[in-house]
Amino acid sequence: MSVRFPDSIFVADVKVKGSLYDLGEFPGLQLDGSDSLVAGELYQVDGGTLRQLDVFEASTNYRRKQVEISLGGDERKCWTYEPDPKFYSLGRLVASGDWVEYAKAKLDRP
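The structure corresponding to this sequence follows.
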């Protein structure tokens, strides 16, 4: 369950093909055809929550995009939000594809 979207239901940890970038406080996933895997979480939301997410993400210049994920051997289409490169510098690649791991390591650096 998300604090901001309490009606969302956590489904599973997932991986998606793409590139992950450090945009400062937040990560940015680019669905760029890369075979690299990016770690993420899958949530089930209703239509109202999806519209709220669209408004929230649009306010930060992220756009909703459809992506295919593998979940338990099944392919599924899901939504993700991708930063608009017109507003963000995509210079710092997170090579591991894992934002949580990367952010912890970033905090531990002097």
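The chain has a mean pLDDT of 90.
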